[in-house]
Specification:
One of its GO terms (biological process) is regulation of Golgi organization. With about 280 residues, the chain is mainly alpha-helical. It is built from 11 helices and no strands. The radius of gyration is 22 Å and the shape is globular.
Length: about 280
Protein backbone atom coordinates (compact mmCIF):
# COMPACT_ATOMS: atom_id res chain seq x y z
CA UNK A 1 0.00 0.00 0.00
CA UNK A 2 3.02 2.34 0.25
CA UNK A 3 2.65 3.34 -3.38
CA UNK A 4 -0.66 4.98 -2.51
CA UNK A 5 1.05 7.48 -0.27
CA UNK A 6 3.64 8.81 -2.66
CA UNK A 7 4.36 12.54 -2.96
CA UNK A 8 2.17 12.68 -6.02
CA UNK A 9 -0.79 11.56 -3.95
CA UNK A 10 -0.33 14.34 -1.42
CA UNK A 11 -1.11 17.09 -3.91
CA UNK A 12 -3.47 19.97 -3.37
CA UNK A 13 -4.77 19.49 -6.88
CA UNK A 14 -5.15 16.63 -9.31
CA UNK A 15 -3.94 16.52 -12.89
CA UNK A 16 -6.12 13.68 -14.13
CA UNK A 17 -8.98 15.83 -15.36
CA UNK A 18 -11.13 15.61 -12.24
CA UNK A 19 -12.75 18.71 -10.82
CA UNK A 20 -13.46 20.30 -7.46
CA UNK A 21 -17.06 18.99 -7.18
CA UNK A 22 -15.91 15.51 -8.19
CA UNK A 23 -13.29 15.56 -5.44
CA UNK A 24 -16.02 16.54 -2.98
CA UNK A 25 -18.28 13.69 -4.09
CA UNK A 26 -15.73 10.86 -3.98
CA UNK A 27 -16.07 10.44 -0.21
CA UNK A 28 -19.90 10.46 0.09
CA UNK A 29 -20.57 8.66 -3.20
CA UNK A 30 -17.78 6.06 -3.28
CA UNK A 31 -15.99 5.66 0.06
CA UNK A 32 -18.77 6.21 2.59
CA UNK A 33 -21.15 3.59 1.11
CA UNK A 34 -18.31 1.05 1.29
CA UNK A 35 -17.58 2.02 4.90
CA UNK A 36 -21.25 1.63 5.77
CA UNK A 37 -21.16 -1.93 4.43
CA UNK A 38 -18.34 -2.74 6.87
CA UNK A 39 -20.97 -2.91 9.61
CA UNK A 40 -22.33 -6.08 8.01
CA UNK A 41 -18.85 -7.61 7.90
CA UNK A 42 -18.07 -7.14 11.58
CA UNK A 43 -15.96 -3.97 11.34
CA UNK A 44 -18.41 -1.55 12.96
CA UNK A 45 -15.88 -0.43 15.58
CA UNK A 46 -13.54 1.13 13.03
CA UNK A 47 -16.20 2.70 10.81
CA UNK A 48 -16.23 6.06 12.54
CA UNK A 49 -12.44 6.33 12.82
CA UNK A 50 -11.92 5.41 9.17
CA UNK A 51 -14.56 7.87 8.02
CA UNK A 52 -13.09 10.69 10.12
CA UNK A 53 -9.55 9.94 8.94
CA UNK A 54 -10.55 10.05 5.27
CA UNK A 55 -12.45 13.28 5.87
CA UNK A 56 -9.45 14.95 7.54
CA UNK A 57 -7.14 13.80 4.75
CA UNK A 58 -9.50 15.30 2.18
CA UNK A 59 -9.60 18.59 4.09
CA UNK A 60 -5.80 18.78 4.32
CA UNK A 61 -5.09 17.42 0.85
CA UNK A 62 -8.00 18.36 -1.43
CA UNK A 63 -8.44 15.61 -4.01
CA UNK A 64 -6.78 12.93 -1.85
CA UNK A 65 -9.70 10.49 -2.07
CA UNK A 66 -10.00 10.78 -5.82
CA UNK A 67 -6.25 10.42 -6.31
CA UNK A 68 -6.25 7.41 -3.96
CA UNK A 69 -8.70 5.60 -6.22
CA UNK A 70 -6.93 6.73 -9.38
CA UNK A 71 -3.55 5.53 -8.08
CA UNK A 72 -5.05 2.14 -7.23
CA UNK A 73 -6.60 1.80 -10.68
CA UNK A 74 -3.42 2.90 -12.44
CA UNK A 75 -1.35 0.29 -10.63
CA UNK A 76 -3.60 -2.78 -10.52
CA UNK A 77 -6.33 -2.11 -13.07
CA UNK A 78 -4.69 -0.05 -15.79
CA UNK A 79 -7.23 -1.05 -18.45
CA UNK A 80 -10.11 0.03 -16.20
CA UNK A 81 -8.28 3.23 -15.32
CA UNK A 82 -8.23 4.31 -18.96
CA UNK A 83 -11.99 3.95 -19.27
CA UNK A 84 -13.00 5.35 -15.87
CA UNK A 85 -14.20 8.94 -15.89
CA UNK A 86 -14.41 10.06 -12.26
CA UNK A 87 -16.61 13.06 -13.09
CA UNK A 88 -19.11 10.69 -14.69
CA UNK A 89 -18.77 8.02 -12.01
CA UNK A 90 -19.51 10.24 -9.00
CA UNK A 91 -22.53 11.70 -10.79
CA UNK A 92 -23.87 8.29 -11.78
CA UNK A 93 -23.43 6.82 -8.29
CA UNK A 94 -25.52 9.56 -6.67
CA UNK A 95 -28.75 7.64 -7.24
CA UNK A 96 -27.38 4.57 -5.45
CA UNK A 97 -26.26 6.38 -2.29
CA UNK A 98 -28.28 6.72 0.89
CA UNK A 99 -28.22 10.48 1.47
CA UNK A 100 -30.80 10.42 4.27
CA UNK A 101 -28.51 12.30 6.74
CA UNK A 102 -28.43 15.27 4.35
CA UNK A 103 -32.18 15.81 4.42
CA UNK A 104 -34.30 17.61 6.99
CA UNK A 105 -35.33 15.54 9.99
CA UNK A 106 -38.74 13.89 10.05
CA UNK A 107 -39.25 15.70 13.39
CA UNK A 108 -40.39 18.62 11.28
CA UNK A 109 -44.00 17.78 10.47
CA UNK A 110 -44.56 20.90 8.39
CA UNK A 111 -45.46 20.07 4.80
CA UNK A 112 -42.88 22.50 3.42
CA UNK A 113 -39.97 20.52 4.92
CA UNK A 114 -41.39 17.31 3.50
CA UNK A 115 -41.70 18.95 0.09
CA UNK A 116 -38.11 20.20 0.23
CA UNK A 117 -36.82 16.71 0.94
CA UNK A 118 -38.86 15.18 -1.87
CA UNK A 119 -37.99 17.88 -4.40
CA UNK A 120 -34.26 17.96 -3.65
CA UNK A 121 -34.09 14.15 -3.75
CA UNK A 122 -35.87 14.20 -7.09
CA UNK A 123 -33.47 16.79 -8.50
CA UNK A 124 -30.48 14.73 -7.40
CA UNK A 125 -32.00 11.59 -8.93
CA UNK A 126 -32.64 13.26 -12.29
CA UNK A 127 -29.14 14.76 -12.41
CA UNK A 128 -27.65 11.31 -11.77
CA UNK A 129 -29.43 10.00 -14.89
CA UNK A 130 -27.43 12.29 -17.17
CA UNK A 131 -24.62 9.80 -18.00
CA UNK A 132 -27.23 7.26 -19.15
CA UNK A 133 -29.56 9.67 -20.95
CA UNK A 134 -26.97 11.80 -22.71
CA UNK A 135 -26.47 9.15 -25.41
CA UNK A 136 -29.96 9.66 -26.84
CA UNK A 137 -30.72 13.26 -27.83
CA UNK A 138 -34.50 13.04 -27.53
CA UNK A 139 -34.32 11.35 -24.13
CA UNK A 140 -31.67 13.81 -22.97
CA UNK A 141 -33.82 16.78 -23.95
CA UNK A 142 -36.66 15.37 -21.83
CA UNK A 143 -34.23 14.94 -18.93
CA UNK A 144 -33.15 18.57 -19.28
CA UNK A 145 -36.80 19.67 -19.06
CA UNK A 146 -37.23 17.59 -15.92
CA UNK A 147 -34.11 19.13 -14.38
CA UNK A 148 -35.32 22.67 -15.11
CA UNK A 149 -38.67 21.94 -13.47
CA UNK A 150 -37.00 20.25 -10.47
CA UNK A 151 -34.66 23.23 -9.96
CA UNK A 152 -37.61 25.63 -9.90
CA UNK A 153 -39.56 23.50 -7.43
CA UNK A 154 -36.52 23.14 -5.16
CA UNK A 155 -35.98 26.90 -5.17
CA UNK A 156 -39.65 27.47 -4.35
CA UNK A 157 -39.32 25.16 -1.34
CA UNK A 158 -36.20 26.95 -0.13
CA UNK A 159 -37.96 30.32 -0.39
CA UNK A 160 -40.92 29.00 1.61
CA UNK A 161 -38.61 27.74 4.37
CA UNK A 162 -37.13 31.20 4.99
CA UNK A 163 -40.10 31.97 7.28
CA UNK A 164 -39.04 29.14 9.61
CA UNK A 165 -35.56 30.59 10.18
CA UNK A 166 -35.82 32.98 13.11
CA UNK A 167 -32.44 34.75 13.08
CA UNK A 168 -31.18 37.36 10.64
CA UNK A 169 -27.87 35.49 10.36
CA UNK A 170 -29.73 32.32 9.42
CA UNK A 171 -31.87 34.00 6.80
CA UNK A 172 -28.82 35.74 5.32
CA UNK A 173 -26.87 32.47 5.25
CA UNK A 174 -29.69 30.72 3.42
CA UNK A 175 -30.10 33.63 1.00
CA UNK A 176 -26.38 33.41 0.22
CA UNK A 177 -26.53 29.67 -0.45
CA UNK A 178 -29.65 30.18 -2.53
CA UNK A 179 -27.76 32.69 -4.68
CA UNK A 180 -24.92 30.19 -5.09
CA UNK A 181 -27.41 27.51 -6.10
CA UNK A 182 -28.95 29.85 -8.70
CA UNK A 183 -25.49 30.73 -9.99
CA UNK A 184 -24.54 27.09 -10.53
CA UNK A 185 -27.95 26.35 -12.01
CA UNK A 186 -27.31 29.03 -14.62
CA UNK A 187 -23.82 27.65 -15.19
CA UNK A 188 -25.35 24.21 -15.75
CA UNK A 189 -27.79 25.69 -18.26
CA UNK A 190 -25.00 27.49 -20.13
CA UNK A 191 -22.92 24.31 -20.15
CA UNK A 192 -25.81 22.43 -21.75
CA UNK A 193 -26.07 25.06 -24.47
CA UNK A 194 -22.35 24.71 -25.15
CA UNK A 195 -22.65 20.92 -25.19
CA UNK A 196 -25.03 21.00 -28.14
CA UNK A 197 -22.34 22.93 -30.01
CA UNK A 198 -19.14 21.17 -28.94
CA UNK A 199 -20.39 17.78 -27.55
CA UNK A 200 -18.09 17.99 -24.50
CA UNK A 201 -19.82 15.57 -22.16
CA UNK A 202 -17.32 15.93 -19.36
CA UNK A 203 -18.21 19.60 -18.95
CA UNK A 204 -21.85 18.56 -18.45
CA UNK A 205 -20.86 15.99 -15.79
CA UNK A 206 -18.79 18.58 -13.93
CA UNK A 207 -21.57 21.20 -14.04
CA UNK A 208 -24.07 18.61 -12.76
CA UNK A 209 -21.70 17.61 -9.94
CA UNK A 210 -21.42 21.27 -8.93
CA UNK A 211 -25.20 21.37 -8.73
CA UNK A 212 -25.30 18.25 -6.55
CA UNK A 213 -22.87 19.90 -4.14
CA UNK A 214 -24.93 23.09 -4.04
CA UNK A 215 -28.05 21.11 -3.13
CA UNK A 216 -26.13 19.68 -0.17
CA UNK A 217 -24.96 23.15 0.90
CA UNK A 218 -28.55 24.42 0.80
CA UNK A 219 -29.78 21.52 2.91
CA UNK A 220 -26.86 21.91 5.33
CA UNK A 221 -27.71 25.56 5.96
CA UNK A 222 -31.36 24.73 6.63
CA UNK A 223 -30.39 21.90 8.99
CA UNK A 224 -27.96 24.20 10.79
CA UNK A 225 -30.64 26.78 11.63
CA UNK A 226 -33.74 24.58 11.89
CA UNK A 227 -32.51 21.48 13.75
CA UNK A 228 -31.00 21.04 17.18
CA UNK A 229 -29.08 17.87 16.37
CA UNK A 230 -25.31 18.06 15.94
CA UNK A 231 -24.38 18.41 12.30
CA UNK A 232 -22.17 15.68 10.82
CA UNK A 233 -19.46 17.78 9.17
CA UNK A 234 -17.93 14.68 7.56
CA UNK A 235 -20.82 14.72 5.10
CA UNK A 236 -19.41 17.89 3.51
CA UNK A 237 -15.74 17.20 2.72
CA UNK A 238 -14.96 20.40 0.84
CA UNK A 239 -17.27 22.77 2.71
CA UNK A 240 -14.47 24.77 4.34
CA UNK A 241 -12.74 25.14 0.98
CA UNK A 242 -16.03 26.22 -0.59
CA UNK A 243 -16.46 28.92 2.04
CA UNK A 244 -12.84 30.04 1.76
CA UNK A 245 -13.19 30.30 -2.01
CA UNK A 246 -16.18 32.60 -1.60
CA UNK A 247 -14.26 34.77 0.89
CA UNK A 248 -11.22 34.88 -1.41
CA UNK A 249 -13.42 35.77 -4.37
CA UNK A 250 -15.12 38.60 -2.48
CA UNK A 251 -11.76 39.83 -1.17
CA UNK A 252 -10.30 39.72 -4.66
CA UNK A 253 -13.23 41.71 -6.06
CA UNK A 254 -12.89 44.28 -3.28
CA UNK A 255 -9.13 44.61 -3.85
CA UNK A 256 -9.55 44.85 -7.63
CA UNK A 257 -12.30 47.47 -7.36
CA UNK A 258 -10.25 49.44 -4.85
CA UNK A 259 -7.17 49.43 -7.08
CA UNK A 260 -9.22 50.51 -10.09
CA UNK A 261 -10.74 53.40 -8.14
CA UNK A 262 -7.37 54.48 -6.77
CA UNK A 263 -5.89 54.37 -10.26
CA UNK A 264 -8.79 56.38 -11.63
CA UNK A 265 -8.51 58.93 -8.85
CA UNK A 266 -4.76 59.27 -9.34
CA UNK A 267 -5.14 59.92 -13.05
CA UNK A 268 -7.69 62.66 -12.37
CA UNK A 269 -5.56 64.57 -9.84
CA UNK A 270 -4.41 67.95 -11.14
CA UNK A 271 -1.27 69.75 -9.96
CA UNK A 272 -3.30 72.65 -8.57
CA UNK A 273 -5.74 70.52 -6.66
CA UNK A 274 -5.46 69.77 -2.98
CA UNK A 275 -4.31 66.37 -1.79
CA UNK A 276 -7.64 65.65 -0.15
CA UNK A 277 -10.09 63.48 -2.07
CA UNK A 278 -12.52 60.73 -1.21
CA UNK A 279 -12.30 57.08 -2.13
CA UNK A 280 -15.69 55.48 -2.59
CA UNK A 281 -16.33 51.77 -2.13
CA UNK A 282 -19.13 49.82 -3.75
Amino acid sequence: MNFLFSDNLMMASIDDGTSLPTNALVLPNIFYPVIEQMNKSGYKDIQSDLRTTLFKLEEIYPGFSCNFIQSFLNRDMSSLSKTTNMNELTLKLEKYCDKTPYFISSLHNEQIFYELNIRSKNLKRILSRIPDDINEKREFLETIKEIASAIKKTLDSVTNILQYIKTNDGRQALENEKKEFIKYSKNFSNTLKAYFRDSKRDDVYIAANYLLIQIDYLLRTIKLYCEIDTLDECLYPLLSQHQNQIKMMLSSRYSSNNQQRQSSNSSNIRPSSSSTYETNYS
